[in-house]
Amino acid sequence: MSERILIVGGGTAGSVLANNLSDRLAGEIDAGEVEVTLVNDTEDHVYKPTWLYVPFGEKTPADARRPLSDLIDRRVDLEIDRVTAVDTDAKRVSFERKDEELAYDHLVLAMGTSVSPEETPGLAEGGHHFYNPEGATALREELASFTEGHLVLSVIGVPHMCPVAPLEFVLIADDWFRERGLRDDVEITYTYPIGRAHGIESVAEWSGPLMEDRDINVETFFNPEEVDPDEGVLHTVEGRSLEYDTLVAIPPHEGSDLVREAGLGEDGWVDVDPHTLEATNAEDVYALGDVADLPTSKAGSAAHYAAGALAKRLASVARGEQPTTRYDGKTVCFIESGRDEGTYISFDYDEEPVPKEPSRLLHWSKLGYNQSYWLTARGVL
Ligand SMILES: Cc1cc2nc3c(=O)[nH]c(=O)nc-3n(C[C@H](O)[C@H](O)[C@H](O)COP(=O)(O)OP(=O)(O)OC[C@H]3O[C@@H](n4cnc5c(N)ncnc54)[C@H](O)[C@@H]3O)c2cc1C
Questions:
Q1: What local confidence, expressed as pLDDT, does residue 182 receive?
Q2: Which of 122, 134, 165, 191 could form a disulfide with 222 if both were Cys (CB 3.0 to 4.6 A apart)?
């Protein structure tokens, strides 16, 4: 009987893992000793970092999509369906469309996360965001007609995908309005929930002078509890209010019901060992990427490096060997600091990042990485 590895979610984490496993275990898969199945609820793979550029007219949501069937190695069984329940005792999952359950020996959860603006009263009606295709497209229309007034970017949901994207947004917006000769008529404010401009201390220190230089107001200890769309006002838990003409929010993010119902994590993020990625509450279950409760960023690069480590571990397990590889929390983020400059940070569980001096080269490196992503997701690079 073959070892069955089932991966739920064909985003960055699941796709990189599936391709990496099919490479490492090609011989065993061909010999019928191992089966790798990847289940995703849509036909397409989505590369979310593209959405940052949609509001500024640089990209479209279609640029972020490619058929999974083009990205996933032929040795992987690709199933398009939604997993609706996980039974970790019986080691089976059930589906939305397919009646039959699927049994596994090793289950990897990689369902990512999505935004839930309705959790903050008034936000869905009064705010914009760029954290899904619809939001990014609507924001493009809003910005195209925004020629004067107060643009507020408010980080509401923490943790959220890509911790640096809100900073990138305001720094790009600053340049974008300058290029269009509108900056003197547009005030920009960035708000953050804790007592500094970013959760990562060195990024907060790096961005402080930059924001001042670029005339971007920064409000800290700012936790919106309600948006008044009619008056255009944000009200915070701290009793403060901020008027806006256009609000761009980073909405609250959702954990997964599947995770809660399977008893794998109370708040919807899977409780895992940060090094082995094994679920704390079930045998032979692993999680990686945004759905995992890891002490690092919800970033594609973290998902990518974690997938590489887990592929090595699972390949060892499938061969009956003791796994020794550990994920060290490695995460690398390119950060746009404007329309033609960028920097980058690299860190892990033990090492704090140090942002590099922004340069055109690093901006072009980010754009270059975004193109080569389609090769890295295939496991070519
Ligand atoms: C605007 C923006 C900019 C970003 N920029 C960067 C960046 O510059 N650098 C960086 O490293 N990261 C960035 N990120 C974060 C990055 O996109 C995510 O961290 C990454 O996508 C996480 O990968 P994942 O595989 O865990 O989840 P996802 O990519 O979200 O994939 C999850 C997959 O699971 C599927 N799925 C969900 N539930 C089920 C189910 N029940 N059954 C079957 N399939 C299911 C989903 O449809 C999806 O295909 C950005 C994110 C955003 C929103």
A1: 98
A2: 191
Question: Is the CB of residue 130 below 6 angstroms from any atom belonging to ligand 1?
Answer: yes
- Where along the chain do its domains lie? 3-113+255-329, 116-252
Ligand 1 pocket test: pick from 101, 137, 161 the residue with the most ligand atoms within 8 Å of its Cβ. 161
What are the backbone angles phi and psi of residue 359, rounded to the nearest 5°? -150, 165
Q: What would the pLDDT profile of 255-264 be if each residue is shown by its tens digit?
A: 999 999 999 9
Distance CA 264, CA 267 (A): 9
Beta pairing partners, 234: 227, 242
Nearest Cα residue to 152 out of 230, 52, 227: 227
Measured in Å, residue 184 CA sits from the centre of ligand 1 at 36
**CATH topology of 3-113+255-329 equal to that of 116-252?**
yes
The verdict on the CB of residue 251 being under 6 Å from ligand 1 is no
pLDDT tens column, 155-169: 998 899 999 999 999
CB-count burial class (<10 Å; 0-12, 13-18, 19+) for 12: buried
- Ligand 1 neighbour 14 (Cβ under 6 A): yes
Nearest CA to ligand 1 atom 30: 112
| Under-50 pLDDT residues of the chain | none
Q: What's the sign of the alpha-carbon dihedral 122, 123, 124, 128?
A: positive
Q: Which CATH class is domain 116-252?
A: alpha beta
Residue whose CA is closest, atom 4 of ligand 1?
Answer: 49
The architecture of the domain spanning 3-113+255-329 is 3-Layer(bba) Sandwich (3.50)
